[in-house]
Design brief:
With 214 residues, this protein is mainly β. 13% of the residues lie in helices and 64% in strands.
């Protein structure tokens, strides 16, 4: 609920600013830098998201940019032992890697900018946990998930300084997913299942970033 309210508030604020700016300012080309480096801060608000950084390179100092986004996250958690389901500590680990490349177009109005474009992305998850039950049978579930897809986006950016800006992006992802799960069953045999599927999802306020321009 907090994330939804924050999304609504920021979106309304950016739209209001855009409408006011577009009424009073003619479009101008911003051609004073070539490189933009962004740090996404949404993971500070929602700890389920992966921290990412974004590099944009403007060809010939134009309002067209090529994008490279990288992200990674690793967590490890150990549950304390206790009856009745397990007698030893259980270790759980989670690894996520994210890479995307794309292209964006930009419309500038004074200190306000509209960004739109698309990214090709790949996302990899690895989840692993260890469990020893009271009958001394080990269960070692391991889950791999690989997603490949296209992510069109539209966003807004506000320059607080000619070299510093704040931005948000909304994405719509269409991806192919392959999910593989391996585990040891009750007969102490290794079982593996693989699932393949297509998935589309809307990601409003997918990133909020602090950006530096050079």
């Amino acid at each position: 609920m907090k994330t939804f309210l924050l999304t609504l508030f920021l979106s309304v604020s950016f739209i209001a600013k855009a409408q006011d700016t577009l009424r009073h300012e003619p479009p101008t080309a911003r051609q004073d830098y070539k490189i933009e480096l962004s740090a996404d801060v949404m993971w500070l608000i929602n700890d389920n998201l992966t921290p990412t950084v974004l590099l944009k390179i403007h060809k010939n100092l134009s309002n067209t940019a090529y994008r490279l986004r990288l992200g990674a996250d690793y967590t490890e958690h150990i549950n304390a032992p206790g009856p009745p389901t397990h007698i030893y500590p259980m270790s759980k680990t989670h690894l996520e890697l994210f890479v995307s490349v794309g292209k964006e177009w930009q419309l500038d109005y004074d200190n306000f900018r509209i960004n739109y474009g698309a990214d090709l992305y790949t996302n990899y998850w690895l989840y692993r946990s260890e469990h020893q039950s009271t009958d001394a049978i080990n269960f070692l579930p391991r889950q791999h998930n690989l997603e490949l897809g296209l992510s069109p986006f539209i966003g807004a950016q506000y320059f607080v300084h000619k070299n510093i800006s704040l931005a948000l992006e909304n994405h719509f992802r269409i991806g192919y997913n392959q999910e593989k799960i391996s585990y040891v069953n009750n007969d102490n045999q290794l079982d593996t299942s693989t699932t393949k599927f297509l998935k589309a999802k809307l990601l409003p306020l997918h990133t909020i970033s602090l950006n530096f321009h050079f």
